[in-house]
Amino acid sequence: MTLAHAEGTRVLVVDDDPLLVRLVRTHLEKAGYRVLTAADGDQALELAATELPDLVVLDLMLPRLHGLEVCRRIREFSLVPVVMLTARGEPMDRLRGFEMGADDYLAKPFMPAELLARVRAVLRRSQQGGGATTPAVVRCGDIAIDLVRRRVSVRDELVKLTATEFRLLQHLAVNAGKVLSHAELLITVWGPEYRDDRDYLWAYVRHLRRKLEPDPEHPRHIISSPGFGYVLEHPPGATEDQDTCR
Questions:
Q1: How is the beta sheet containing 137-140 ordered, strand by strand?
Q2: Do residue 120 and residue 149 come from a single domain?
Q3: Residue 244 above 70 pLDDT?
Q4: To 10 degrees, the CA torsion angle through 28, 34, 38, 39?
């Protein structure tokens, strides 16, 4: 990626070491990138959701939220490329980073030229492959699902969900309009060993409908596909300007 191509490309650098942030920022800006910075995991999630950077350089050891958790939560609403930056170099740490959705891994100490090469390579791969990003807040009729803050509201009233209820709703939300099979939902929310335990899924769908649907016996949002699965659907009869599931 040349200097001209780098112009306008925004990189979010997340690290609690101000000297390292200054070093990385200086070299990225010299190469033509626009740089955003965050010193902890909460701030990183906020900026990733609101500023929509083109790439994230993410330190593993962060205050408040661990870098692996930050990466995992970014992946809940975005496919932005992530380069993990850490003092640890053990293979298990790299494996855990890739499992959480990291695209590349660079161990400290590193040469600025090596970081720039990794950034260019990851950006080039992501641009070739395309990719979709889910909005940080998915709105479906009266329901608003904030994937960053993990909040759900119905008609602007907060609704309290359990961790499992939220994971189930979250997976439906990031795939809104797409019918997901019972097995996919069970594997994603509970784990592969639960892929055939449909009673878990039926029970939690009932819980969600009671909390989110105006009439749980005649749902408008969480719709069954008999014998196959469920979909978070645009409410029937709603206009595109009033109710959006996206």
A1: 137-140, 143-146, 151-154, 157-159
A2: no
A3: no
A4: 30
